[in-house]
Amino acid sequence: MKPSVSPAPAPANRPRRRPDLTLPMPQRDPSLAVPLPLPPPSSNSIPTPPSTIGQSLPTPSFSDLERIRRIGSGSGGTVYMVRHRTTGRIFALKVIYGNHEEAVRRQICREIEILRTADNPFVVRCHGMYDHAGEIQILLEFMDGGSLDGKKISSERFLAEVAHQILTGLAYLHRQKIVHRDIKPSNLLINAARQVKIADFGVSRILAQTMDPCNSSVGTIAYMSPERINTDLNHGIYDGYAGDIWSFGLSILEFYLGRFPFGEKLGRQGDWASLMCAICYSNPPEAPPTASREFRTFISCCLQKEPARRLTAAQLLQHSFITQLQHPPLQSSSSSSSNSSHP
Ligand code: ATP
Ligand code: MG
């Protein structure tokens, strides 16, 4: 399987200690490591809700965080809503299961530091991490609307807005050479301002490195692309970027249909083998004939069995299903299939 992040050469002054790990190493000049004060707030600007501030903040001290409530649990950890006592800011704190060895923890810390540099309005911000009593905890931007898991979005216009935001975040991550690997409805979060953001990028990769492969609590394969599940399908070549596009397309179609596109039962309670067979050996799911032509071609540009035939995030942003958002409705139908050809 191809690694999730394209290998980057280690800087000359810092040899890579673990050649099997591939996240680009940050090039830090220690002489510049001076904490800079935050710019003063502009007096006439609209105050930004604390959870949506984009710039990197100093990581609050762990003892200053007060747990308010448990939000939910996934295969790799539990997420809590926490408040920073001194500023009143609300965050989400993801506590990763298990106590890891010292060396693994150090590696996770380094990787999270890199993920911390990701800065895009459509990507959930990582504000830092704690290694507390051997347990790794990640401080995240809090998304008050929760995830889009189980949501049905029958309005194509709203769905196009949602898709536009996710694609903008995904195109950003891909430009940074970060592959998400776990795009699915529960990792797409929404806030009161109706901003949709991608969560858990990189976390799945960290978990994949640290979790016991025999651990039964691995995440779902439901949104994985056929060639990721069955490496024989694409001559053993796995392109993580194209894999993310499959998962994105399947999630968008699920929002439209209000059910898992390969079959409602398969998504939740289905056994692994039937799910695998459906994804790898049946035809990719399609939007129903009742949907607009724009939406149907958009979905088919994502859900191509052959990864090379899927459009990239940047190309999908140019698809008429997305671009029609900027045009009056009358103009939209004339260019319905202009971008539907595959690269
Ligand atoms: P899995 O770990 O199997 O992929 P998951 O994505 O549901 O599943 P978590 O990422 O641990 O698991 O999330 C648990 C719950 O916490 C989910 O309901 C998710 O919507 C919520 N959640 C995660 N991150 C945040 C956040 N930053 N703000 C608000 N809620 C969040
Ligand atoms: Mg998640």
Automatic annotation (TrEMBL):
Keywords (alphabetical) are:
ATP-binding, Kinase, Nucleotide-binding, Phosphoprotein, Serine/threonine-protein kinase, Transferase
**Name of the molecule in the record:** mitogen-activated protein kinase kinase
Q: Does the keyword tRNA-binding apply?
A: no
Q: Which SUPFAM superfamilies match?
A: Protein kinase-like (PK-like)
| Ranges where the Protein kinase domain occurs | 65-322
Catalytic reaction list: L-seryl-[protein] + ATP = O-phospho-L-seryl-[protein] + ADP + H(+); L-tyrosyl-[protein] + ATP = O-phospho-L-tyrosyl-[protein] + ADP + H(+); L-threonyl-[protein] + ATP = O-phospho-L-threonyl-[protein] + ADP + H(+)
* Any one Pfam family match given in the protein's UniProt record, by short name: Pkinase
The protein's matches in InterPro entries, at most eight in alphabetical order, are given as: Kinase-like_dom_sf (IPR011009), Prot_kinase_dom (IPR000719), Protein_kinase_ATP_BS (IPR017441), Ser/Thr_kinase_AS (IPR008271), Ser_Thr_kinase (IPR053235)
Instruction: Return the similarity comment.
Output: Belongs to the protein kinase superfamily. STE Ser/Thr protein kinase family. MAP kinase kinase subfamily.
Do the record's keywords include Kinase? yes
The record's section on PROSITE patterns has: PROTEIN_KINASE_ATP (PS00107), PROTEIN_KINASE_DOM (PS50011), PROTEIN_KINASE_ST (PS00108)
Q: Which CDD domains match?
A: PKc_MAPKK_plant_like (cd06623)
Q: Which residues bind ATP?
A: 94
Question: Any idea of its EC number?
Answer: 2.7.12.2
Compositional bias of kind Pro residues? 1-12, 36-50
Report residue spans for region: Disordered.
1-60
